[in-house]
Design brief:
Largest sheet: 8 strands, mixed
Shape: globular
């Protein structure tokens, strides 16, 4: 549907849930706050303008692939998107620009993640939803470990988690990512962190220090300011939360 608040912009709804926003005239514009935070990580964790190799788990409207093709020309990107009709709809109504360097593979995201060549990506972004939930097999330590295998030294794994009070899913996600990555952080709005409402929490992991100070400045300057948790503060957030593994009992729907 056209985004009436911004000329040249479109909104993608899946089962009535807003999934993506695309500005075809300005692909460097990111509307959704959690997408903007993933953009901050991509912008600040690597030298500005440097082409990247990126693996996207989940495609939607291809907002972030478009953004990275725009801000980092020459990037090579692979998108794992199982929903073929969705991809066809997006390509038809929101065609990608020439020379975009984006490939879409119609396959399960975990299968793609485990099939790619080791140490071949700078950035892995996980933003997969079936309805309002991330498929369980993409939330486990084994999935995080597969992402670490796919990353080059210094690469970054970024995950979007939607959760609400009491933030049990988010705490377990942090515990899980911390079990596989030396350096971790999470970006979220204060009201979400306090358990006052549902929201998105963006997590990142790497084998090298992340740009925590720069991320704090960027997140604080957003239209909806967010906090960055790392180190001891993030450890306290996840205190007592159990790590999710492939052998964990899948929660009932």
């Amino acid at each position: 549907m056209p985004d009436l608040s911004r000329t040249g912009s479109w909104l993608l709804f899946t089962d009535g849930i807003p999934q993506s926003q695309v500005d075809t005239e300005d692909p460097g514009y990111l509307e959704f706050e959690y997408v903007r935070r993933i953009g901050h990580i991509a912008d600040l964790a690597f030298p500005a303008g440097e082409p990247l190799r990126v693996l996207h788990l989940g495609g939607g409207g291809l907002t972030l692939p478009r953004y990275l093709a725009h801000t980092r020309p020459g990037s090579r990107q692979l998108v794992a998107e199982l929903d073929v009709p969705l991809t066809e709809l997006v390509r038809k109504h929101l065609p990608l620009p020439p020379g975009h360097g984006i490939r879409v593979r119609a396959a399960d995201a975990r299968e793609v993640l485990e099939s790619v060549r080791a140490a071949s990506y700078d950035l892995v972004i996980s933003d997969v939803y079936a309805g309002a939930k991330t498929p369980f097999h993409l939330t486990t330590a084994e999935a995080a470990r597969a992402a670490a295998r796919a990353l080059r030294s210094g690469g970054v794994y970024t995950v979007n988690v939607a959760d609400g009070p009491p933030l049990q899913q988010a705490r377990r996600a942090v515990a899980t990512i911390r079990s596989e990555y030396k350096e971790t952080c999470m970006i979220a709005e204060p009201a979400v962190l306090r358990g006052r409402r549902l929201g998105n929490l963006v997590m990142a992991g790497s084998d090298r220090p992340l740009p925590y100070a720069e991320l704090r400045r960027a997140a604080a300057g957003d239209p909806f300011p967010a906090r960055v948790l790392d180190g001891d503060e993030l450890a306290r957030f996840a205190s007592g939360a159990s790590i999710i593994t492939d052998g964990t009992n899948v929660p009932e729907k």
